[in-house]
């Protein structure tokens, strides 16, 4: 998608404020997530997904799938990329349609309660807002907040999520009440939480992993720690992490305005090297078993839609997300 010319040196915010949070919801959200706050959105959504695992009915579905036990990195990458594809290209684009069909196909393999779907959807709206208000280089503008609500409501409707609250404040209340009523300990919470913690630790050299695990505990609130059965985090370590995040934001505040979106170009992607060049959202997902991912490593995929691309290869069966 081509971004229109905008005034200003350091931020897209002056331009964002000229847009309509409903009619221009995708453009606003793409600018916010891909240009203004790519680091913060990625970190916030990692912890937002972690937060959903505090719900026994959610963690039970994930445990049943076997994805977290068998290949947590792939499950993480599939989720991150499919959501990023919709942010980058829009839900109504060809790649956006492929992404939402892929997500619906995977969800359709399980009996997932509508309230659980609503809750997961709400975390994509409000957890990044909370994170950026705490650690971002500026607070989100009301236009950006409303655009995030309208953008994810649109995604929810494409996913056949019912009874989405009618406004920003109502959905925020639903999220708070759901967490108050549904967060509680379960063995499946603990298992999925441990797999996710270990995944985060695996991104760092072995000597640092115990410290990373302690950092994860430190960033969880007490309700999350109790729901996972994790030890309480260190307040001192949390304060140190928050100081580092604030220092980063103070430096980012004076950087030039970003000109290239960071939504789908994550250099740390471990499952699909070179993504998105030559890949399509339909090529992702849990049915794409390990052999296919290994075959793609170290090669430059053919152009999407050409004969012999990865989209043409048969997909062996595999467990669902």
TrEMBL record:
Signal peptide segment: none
Record-annotated ER-bound oxygenase mpaB/mpaB'/Rubber oxygenase catalytic domain positions: 54-240
Disordered, as annotated region: 261-283
UniProt xrefs under PANTHER family: ER-BOUND OXYGENASE MPAB_MPAB'_RUBBER OXYGENASE CATALYTIC DOMAIN-CONTAINING PROTEIN, PTHR36124
Name of protein: Oxygenase MpaB family protein
Provenance organism: Tomitella cavernea
